[in-house]
C-alpha cells in the first residue's frame, strides 16, 4: 500500500499515527468556544480537526412519532427526538469558514463529515482536502458517490455495517472514483466499552480491502487507541472537548486537551516501538553486556593449572565466553598465566574449541 497524503501530513505504516480531534457538538453552540477548541487541538499536537456538516432538516423530520424518538435505555440522548438532538448538535454552516481559517492559521488540518450531498457542495467551496463518511451514513449510496466523485481521499467509519455491507460501500466508493481510502473500525455506542471495540478487526480490514485502516474510538480514555497502533492503525479519531464538566452532547466520551496531548505522544511512541523483527543487541544495547553472565577466571592461574569450580565461574559481566562452554573447560589445563578477573577466551586452552 502506498502512503496517503492528508493535507500536509502522510498516512501509512512509515509514518506516526494521524490523530483527528473530532469537535462534533462540543462547541455547545458558541463560535468562540469552537475557535478555542481549534486552538486547544493545535496545542495538543493533533494533526486534524473535524467538523460535522449538516442541518437538522437535512438529517431527519421534525416529528415526535415513535420512530423519531431515541428510546435506548443506555443512550446519552434517551427520550429526545432525533430532530432535537441534531438541532442542538449541528455546527452552523456560517461558522465553517472562520473555523477553517483558524485551523490553517494554527497549522492543523480542517475537514468535515458531510451528511448530505448539499453539504459536499458547500465543503468543496471551502477547499476541504479530504472527507469523512460517518458510520451511520455509510449505506447512503448517493452521498458516498458524491464524496467519491471529488477524487479526494476518503475516511470511512464501519459502525454497525456487516462485512457484506462494508464491502458494498467500498465498491461504491471505488467505482465512483475514490482511489485513496482509509477504513476506521468504529463501535456505534456512545460511550463504547473496551469489550465492544474488537480491535482485531483493524488488520483484517486492512488486508481484506487492501487499504489503510484505523480507529474511530468512542471509549473513554486512550487505552484502546494506543492498543490499535500495535495492530496497524494509522489513523485515530477521538471526540475532543475543552472540559467534560462543561457538558454537551458528546462530552461524556470526549478527550480533554491534556488527554489529547497524551494520545498524540503515546500513539507515536507506540508506533516507534513497533520497529521490525529483531533479535540480539544493537549499538545502544552494547553497554548492557555488563549485566549479562559469562565465564571468568576467578583465581590467578599459572600455565598447566587445571580449570575447576574454584577458579572458573559464571558471573556478570558478559564479556567472556558463554556459560554454556563451562563443561568444556573443567578438567582442562590453562595454556598461559591468567589473572583473576580475566574473561575466559578460547586461547586459554591453546586452540579454539568447536561449539
Low-confidence stretches are none
Average pLDDT taken over every residue? 94
> Quick one: CATH class of the largest domain?
Alpha Beta
Give the overall silhouette. elongated
Radius of gyration: 30 Å
Q: How much helix is in the residues?
A: 25-40%
The domain tally reads 2
Keywords: Transferase
GO molecular function, one term: transferase activity
Protein name: Pseudaminic acid synthase
Enzyme class: transferase
Commentary on this structure:
The chain contains 11 helices and 13 strands. It is α/β, with parallel strands linked by helices. The chain folds into 2 domains: about 5-55 and about 90-275, Alpha-Beta Barrel (TIM Barrel); about 285-350, Type Iii Antifreeze Protein Isoform Hplc 12 (Alpha-Beta Complex), CATH 3.90.1210.10. A hairpin with a 2-residue loop joins strand 1 (about 5) and strand 2 (about 10). Helix 1 packs parallel to helix 4 (about 95-105), helix 1 packs parallel to helix 10 (about 255-275) and helix 9 (about 225-230) runs parallel beside helix 10. The mean pLDDT is about 95. It comes from Paenibacillus residui. This is Pseudaminic acid synthase. Keywords: Transferase. Its EC number is 2.5.1.97.
What key attributes describe this structure?
31% helix; 13 strands; alpha/beta; Type Iii Antifreeze Protein Isoform Hplc 12; PseI/NeuA/B-like_N; 8-stranded parallel sheet; 3-stranded antiparallel sheet; TIM Barrel; 2 domains; EC 2.5.1.97; 355 residues
